[in-house]
Write a structure and sequence with these properties.
- By secondary structure, this protein is an all-beta fold.
- It is built from one helix and 23 strands.
- The protein has two domains: about 140 residues, no CATH class; about 120 residues, no CATH class.
- The strands form five sheets. It has a six-stranded mixed β-sheet, with no helix packed on it. Strands 1-16-17-18-19 form a five-stranded antiparallel β-sheet, with no helix packed on it.
- Strand 20 and strand 21 form a beta hairpin.
């Protein structure tokens, strides 16, 4: 099998107990669509989500007790730590927590203010507790979905789907001489949710689409692949043809060659 790098970006809040489900617990069914007969029994109401991963060359499916947008994601770099927050409709930010708080820090050549005391909404006090008394700077605003390494460079992905907003982007970020340089690489007009790197290409699942990105060019493989609200939460790449996506109600298998999606619904529903 070709070398596979799966990004550890499982954007689902889970309880302390995550049950592994055998593949036999799922049955092939048409992908859920808004206002379809299966919609009232969907995981959106039962709070049942499933995540996917590849373990020893085989698909592994886990069940969790509830679904949620991501809270925080961090990434260590020389000089400190990037710390990102996604508050959904309440916004989000990308922060940097420096090891040395005595040096001046810059973002795109402009001096960034060092924040020593942090204030936020009560709803986020637990998830952002790390920032309260830790000096940091604000690098960029946005609902940051993940931070990842690709072709020896560092990138982050942001996206938001709320009311009339449904968009996102991938950015390249460099930190040299205490200065952050940020460059937008791609725009999306459907909020990106999850991403994986495989064979020097990017696999991106948005709210309703699936893309493969090569040389920073988007190839739309599937469009309108399920009803709005099924929130894909994880991606697992078996090989260049077979890709799995975790969502509520069950999981999906994408055949890149035939451009076909097959949905597998949890039998208990």
């Amino acid at each position: 099998m070709k070398k596979l790098l799966l990004l550890a970006f499982l954007f689902i809040s889970v309880s302390t107990y995550a049950q592994v489900c055998p593949v036999s617990d799922f049955t092939e069914t048409p992908a859920p669509q808004v206002n379809s007969p299966v919609w009232p029994k969907s995981g959106w109401e039962t709070h049942q989500a499933f995540s996917v991963s590849i373990i020893d060359g085989k698909l592994q499916i886990k069940k969790s007790n509830f679904i949620s947008d991501p809270d925080t994601v961090s990434y260590n770099i020389p000089g400190g730590q990037l710390f990102a927050h996604d508050g959904g409709e309440w916004g989000g930010d990308l922060y940097f927590i420096p090891n040395d708080t005595t040096s001046n820090l810059y973002v795109d050549g402009k001096k960034a203010a060092l924040i020593k005391k942090f204030f936020t909404l009560n709803a986020f006090k637990k998830t952002l507790k790390k920032l309260y008394d830790t000096p940091h700077i604000n690098v960029m605003g946005g609902n940051i979905r993940c931070i990842f390494s690709y072709k020896d460079s560092l990138f982050f992905m942001e996206g938001l789907a709320h009311m009339g907003i449904n968009q996102g982007a991938i950015y390249k970020i460099q930190f040299q001489n205490n200065n952050f340089q940020i460059e937008k690489m791609l725009d999306f007009d459907d909020a990106p949710r999850i991403i994986s790197v495989y064979n020097k290409q990017l696999c991106v699942v948005t709210m309703k689409r699936f893309y493969i990105i090569k040389n920073w060019k988007k190839d739309l493989i599937l469009n309108n692949i399920w009803g709005y609200g099924f929130y894909p939460n994880s991606i697992a790449v078996l090989d260049s043809r077979n890709i799995y996506v975790g969502t509520i109600d069950g999981y999906a298998k994408i055949d890149v060659k035939t451009k076909r999606l097959t949905f597998y619904k949890y039998k208990d529903y």
